[in-house]
């Protein structure tokens, strides 16, 4: 069982963070980021060519993270690989001892740095979850043929409580959970009102009992970053009041951390939220401060 | 410069005639024809005319009071399309359209000058 | 129907050699309806090329995607040095098959299978996936109209009814959701759609349809 799974099962409030691999071969970049996170998080998500920008692969980065003694969550998107490649990489990662997987649809390539490329989208994230679950539990490939060997995999999915149609989000979450998602990492929460409503629906349908829900948070460095997220990132909702706060802040970095800590405080109180996922994109060094500030340090040890 | 001018019976043609009567037009040759409504001039016809002339001038009722309702507007869109095709193909010919009432010659002068310069 | 749009004039001109006798060949079916390659457009292009100094003729066939029809332009084609076909890609190929050795250039870019939505606006509707399931999705094809061909609901980028890919494109899943909700049929979306069999689509290689019962 992965440490993340164990901690969640024990009922501890989990903390994960996100690390984006470099645009090159420099593994020290990942190592350095890991060193900074050591002891502050239960696992680290490695993004898979996020926003369709080519980076060192998620699979390889996960191995580097493991080498550094941190548990990776391997993100897998459906944009670039078909069911053959996804199953193959899953087997490879399992053979190397990666135990957490996050199945995502993936941003469209038109948003990235190779917009001329073809995409794959052979399967979607719900189908990917189902395939990986069957590989683990039934020992079969998607085509029904048997596979050999042990698979220890804690399967997760993303969910965006802020994307439209809002009312469909819980249905989609239910589909992901019944397809095999054991944990959920949500899109970053800025709007607690929408998120609370979403969680209310989640509890009503009992989904919070069927999967561990980790709420996403993003510490923001500047007004520009927050405005960008408000206006340019599809599927993020940032209330104007937060933008105002950032605008008026003397020290925007400090304010960003403050907002993040307040959000975590609120999230802890929401029934069904079992942890936080900190996405400090290109600001990984702030994660320890946040974990400490949120009274989530030290992290529990695995038994 | 050889110019063909087409005007609708209701307003364009009478205005064109008056424009022509003024004489001393800055063109080598101007041929003026009438037709019931500018909406009848197809893009294909515009191209055909340009094959044997340097410029085409259309004159019709004002956009908001076209005798045949959408005639002038249709002509306007077609003229734009023809001009953009000519431009794309680097063909130095043009179609202009003037919206006039029968007595107003000024508008024709303005449009012809804007588009074809002072001619010759 | 098949939607196509005219290639840029400069590209068409680049296919031609000065002095060639040109035949602009229109097609009377889909591309006539979408106003890019019918008789009218063939005449215009022909005239435009004359203005550029070529000797041109135009001719429009009922359909270029069938050899039988293509044979009807035999004489016109024989008299020309170069043909510009204003048919869809199928038409250009059919023409090429009929007239080996003839110089034929495409005058259109074939874009999609779709329908007119408003005057001057056409929208893609079908990818020809070979296994139609639109009835499950309120007659809104997610294969074609969702930028990621998602089968189990919208991605996280759907906002205000628009797709993350282009702000002027509707999110197919918002449309599906809205319509099913209105019809009180949302349960239709609860079931997990299994991975699709794409072998019936173009991923299975070039496709053929054989009807033994009508073969001679
Ligand atoms: S399901 Fe397949 S055949 Fe049906 S409309 Fe969509 S792409 Fe076309
Ligand atoms: S926004 Fe909607 S249409 Fe666009 S990729 Fe996502 S689900 Fe598909």
Topology (SSEs and partners):
The complex is a heterotrimer of chains A (303), B (120) and C (216).
Chain A: H1 3-9, E1 14-19, H2 27-37, E2 43-46, H3 58-67, E3 72-77, H4 83-95, E4 100-104, H5 125-137, E5 154-159, H6 169-179, E6 183-188, H7 192-204, H8 207-210, E7 212-217, H9 223-231, H10 240-248, H11 252-269, E8 273-278, H12 287-293
Helix pairs in contact in A: 4-5, 5-6, 9-10, 10-11
Chain B: E1 2-8, H1 12-21, E2 29-35, H2 43-51, E3 55-60, H3 71-88, E4 94-99, H4 106-116
Parallel strand pairs in B: 1-2, 1-3, 3-4
Chain C: E1 2-6, H1 9-14, E2 21-27, H2 30-33, H3 39-51, E3 55-61, H4 67-70, H5 74-79, E4 82-85, H6 89-98, E5 103-106, E6 108-118, E7 121-126, H7 142-145, H8 172-182
Parallel strand pairs in C: 2-3, 2-4, 4-5
Antiparallel strand pairs in C: 1-6, 6-7
The complex binds iron/sulfur cluster (SF4) (2 copies).
Provide key terms for this protein:
heterotrimer; A: 303 residues; alpha/beta; TIM Barrel; eight-stranded parallel barrel; 12 helices; C: 216 residues; Rossmann fold; four-stranded parallel beta sheet; three-stranded antiparallel beta sheet; elongated; binds iron/sulfur cluster
Q: Which class of secondary structure composition applies to the elements of chain B?
A: alpha/beta
**Biggest beta sheet attributes of chain C:** 4 strands, parallel
Order of helices and strands of chain C: EHEHHEHHEHEEEHH
The average pLDDT score of chain B comes to 87
CATH homologous superfamily placement of the largest domain in chain C: Response regulator
Beta-strand segment tally of chain B: 4
Rg of chain B is 13 Å
Detail the poorly predicted runs of chain C: none
- Name the chain pair whose interface involves the most residues: A-C, 37 and 33 residues
Q: Please give the CATH architecture of chain B.
A: 3-Layer(aba) Sandwich
Describe this structure in a few short sentences:
By secondary structure, chain A is of the alpha/beta class. Chain A is about 40% helix and about 15% strand.
Task: Explain this structure.
The complex is a heterotrimer of chains A (303), B (120) and C (216). Chain A is of the alpha/beta class and 303 residues long. Chain A has a single domain (3-293), classed as TIM Barrel (Alpha-Beta Barrel). Chain A contains twelve helices and eight strands. In chain A, α5 (125-137) runs parallel beside α6 (169-179), α9 (223-231) packs antiparallel against α10 (240-248) and α10 (240-248) packs antiparallel against α11. The radius of gyration of chain A is 18 Å and the shape is globular. The mean pLDDT of chain A is 96. Chain B has 120 residues and is of the alpha/beta class. Chain B has one domain (2-116): Rossmann fold. Chain B is built from four helices and four strands; from the N terminus they run βαβαβαβα. Chain B has helices at 12-21, 43-51, 71-88, 106-116; strands spanning 2-8, 29-35, 55-60, 94-99. Chain B is globular and about 35 Å long. The termini of chain B are close together. By secondary structure, chain C is α/β, with parallel strands linked by helices. Chain C is built from eight helices and seven strands; from the N terminus they run βαβααβααβαβββαα. Chain C has helices at residues 9-14, 30-33, 39-51, 67-70, 74-79, 89-98, 142-145, 172-182; strands at residues 2-6, 21-27, 55-61, 82-85, 103-106, 108-118, 121-126. In chain C, the strands form two sheets. Chain C has a four-stranded parallel beta sheet, with helices on both faces. The longest helix of chain C has 13 residues, at 39-51. The two termini of chain C are 28 Å apart. The mean pLDDT of chain C is 96. Classes of the chains: A alpha/beta (303), B alpha/beta (120), C alpha/beta (216). Chains B and C meet through α2 and α3 of B and α1 and α3 of C. The complex binds iron/sulfur cluster (SF4) (2 copies). Residues 146-148, 150, 154-155, 157-158, 163-165, 171-173 of chain C line the site of one iron/sulfur cluster.
